[in-house]
Amino acid sequence: MTICFDIDGVLCDQVEGNYQDAQPNREMIALLNRLYDRADRIVLYTSRFMGRAKGNREEAERIGRDFTERQLAGWGVRYHELWMGKPRYDYVIDDRSVHHDADCSRIEAFLEERRNAGAQ
């Protein structure tokens, strides 16, 4: 299987652009490495540096890849590919997501609940 992991908020805590301050999520990294050891293909994807690069994937790659690779190596993360330049979003709806729900009314209710919680 090919399994994709986001970096910030999944493999480490969410630090709002202060990537040098990110602390690894050791439990999630251990899971990722077990999957790697079981011969699953591990792809990391991230929107790191996309804000600074104003959405330009090539620029995000240029300014952030080396730092990100060093940080991941320091945390002991084993992977096959690193994709820089993931679009920035609040939520993703994907049929292959761990928590996907095909019921549109539940998706809409969830998003509305989140929207209302953010407005308070």
List keywords for this structure.
120 residues, alpha/beta, Rossmann fold, 2 domains, three-stranded parallel β-sheet, 3 strands, globular
What's this entry about, in short?
The chain has 120 residues and is α/β, with parallel strands linked by helices. Helix content is 39%, strand content 12%.
Structure description:
- This protein is of the alpha/beta class and 120 residues long.
- The chain folds into two domains: 2-89, Rossmann fold (3-Layer(aba) Sandwich); 90-120.
- It is 39% helix and 12% strand.
- The protein is built from three helices and three strands.
- The chain has helices at residues 26-37, 57-75, 104-119; strands spanning 2-6, 41-46, 81-84.
- The protein is globular, with a radius of gyration of 16 Å.
Count of individual helical segments: 3
What is the beta-strand fraction? 5-15%
Strand order of the largest sheet: 1-2-3
Distance between the termini: 41 Å
Strand segment count: 3
Secondary structure class reads alpha/beta
Tell me the name of the CATH class of the largest domain: Alpha Beta
- The helix/strand series, from N terminus to C terminus, equals EHEHEH
Computed CA radius of gyration, to the nearest angstrom: 16 Å
Task: Give me the secondary-structure topology.
Blueprint: E1 2-6, H1 26-37, E2 41-46, H2 57-75, E3 81-84, H3 104-119
Parallel strand pairs: 1-2, 2-3
